[in-house]
Amino acid sequence: MERERFLRKHPRLYHLAEAGSYGSIVRHGLLSTSALLDLFGVSGEERFRIESSRRPEMVELHHPEHGSALIRDNKPINERALRNSLTDTSSREWYETLNRRVFFWVDEERLSRLVNARAYRDREHLVLEVDARKLVERHHNRIRISTLNTGAAFPLGAPSRGSDTFRMLEEYPLKKPVVELTVDHSVPDIREFIVRRRP
Questions:
Q1: What contacts 120, CB < 8 A, 6 or more positions away?
Q2: Which terminus has fewer CB within 10 Å in the chain: N or C?
Q3: How far is residue 22's CA from residue 186's CA, in Å, rounded to a whole number?
Q4: Coil, strand or helix: which one is 31?
Q5: Would you call the peptide bond into 155 cis, given omega within 30 degrees of 0 as the criterion?
Q6: Nearest to residue 199, comparing CAs of 11, 17, 13, 10?
Q7: What is the mean pLDDT of residues 93-119?
Q8: What's the pTM value of the predicted model, to 2 decimals?
């Protein structure tokens, strides 16, 4: 997909975060799960449990300097469906791939679906609306897009996924709709790209 065509179609990107996390985002940027675990010094079995396997519930981290942080669960992933959908990677590798990336929805409808899903509708959220052009121009080499919701795998109809799921903007056929834009590891300068935050 040509970068310019993507930016015309998706001038805004949307990131969902925990309510109350804006101060930390301003200080550290948007961090992937892996980057957050690095910051909080999490290692060993605890890190494997968070980073390399399914999280049925949210995980709260604590640090004497950085305070507390919540890592979202992987409830929308059915493990059997995930295993059946993987083409050339293991479940562990897939979870680690997801946890190394910062995720943005490319349209507000997908964001609304997640916010209103049964598991999350009663929680307060922080929504960051981001200028897509500025983000892409600054971080193009670390950006990959996907044509599916990579954080969900349902028993019926889980699409195939593997090492070629995340691709550069220029690598996708124009006819395939993009669902997610991701940035490797973190977006330390995210504050420069935010055009609106809710609440």
A1: 114
A2: C
A3: 15
A4: strand
A5: no
A6: 17
A7: 91
A8: 0.94
